[in-house]
Amino acid sequence: MDQGSIARILKQVSGGEDEIQQLQKALLDYLDENTETDASLVFSRKFYIAQWFRDTTMETEKAIKSQKDEDSSEGTHHAKDIETTGQIMHRAESRKTFLRSIIKTAPSQFSTLKMNSDTVGYEDACLIVRYLASMRPFAQSFDIYLTQ
């Protein structure tokens, strides 16, 4: 992945969110801007929002499950695990709040958002999609599947 381009896109996109949220917002802005030229982008936008919401929910469930597993077994790193679980839960809730705010945005507000935002180009949107896809669990474990 071209980390220089990712860093450039992050500088271009305004926002105090974490890196993933900034990239998601940039991709959604690109999709919003180009829905007039390609109607399938409306479906793509809804699909990405639903998939990211599902991923956040799954991440939260895994954190809760790992915390319960640690509670049932004796662990010396118990306090550290609770802290990381809390951080994961907080990050997941902020991502869910972000996605809910995107969902609640009415289509009439998209045109005003487009005027106020600097959207990325097609090549940058493709790079964002590849970058976000590489962060998914299947992409991260693909080498394991391939060796087996």
TrEMBL record:
GO terms for biological process: brain development; chromatin looping; digestive tract development; embryonic viscerocranium morphogenesis; establishment of mitotic sister chromatid cohesion; establishment of protein localization to chromatin; heart morphogenesis; regulation of gene expression. One of its GO terms (cellular component) is Scc2-Scc4 cohesin loading complex. It comes from the Eukaryota. Residues 62-83 have a biased composition (Basic and acidic residues). Residues 62-84 are annotated as: Disordered. GO terms for molecular function: chromatin binding; cohesin loader activity. PANTHER family: NIPPED-B-LIKE PROTEIN (PTHR21704:SF18), NIPPED-B-LIKE PROTEIN DELANGIN SCC2-RELATED (PTHR21704). This is NIPBL protein.
